[in-house]
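Example record

The entry below shows one chain as it appears in the dataset: sequence first, then structure tokens.
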Amino acid sequence: MAEEVKKEEENALEKYKKALLEETKITEEQLGTWKDEFGPVFVTIISDNIYVYRTINRKEYSEISNLDPNTTDIEDVAVDKCVLFPYDFSKRDKSKEPGGIVASLSKEIEKSSGFRVEVQPIEL
């Protein structure tokens, strides 16, 4: 019984992913190219908008961390680097986006990249 439920959940998730790809018009070929270049690729929906993004690697994180936070919005830099769709996201005027989009995407990218992951310690 549990295996049937798990299989149904997996099928539903695959249908959902396929629907998102159809809506964004991202091809399987494009998705494969991104995965080959960047590794894992994720999708999220924020304020009824679909965003596809990749993780940030350690080198990129170090480079961004070394930027001057007084002159650079570090969240903007990370999000611009990692958002793959909408294709023009890094060129958009963010002042016209809903206020929390960049912060929300930044948190999603951090979580997917292994930051802000709450791990339960195991007492020995």
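Notes for this example: Strands lie at 41-46, 49-54, 83-85. The first strand starts at residue 41 and ends at 46.
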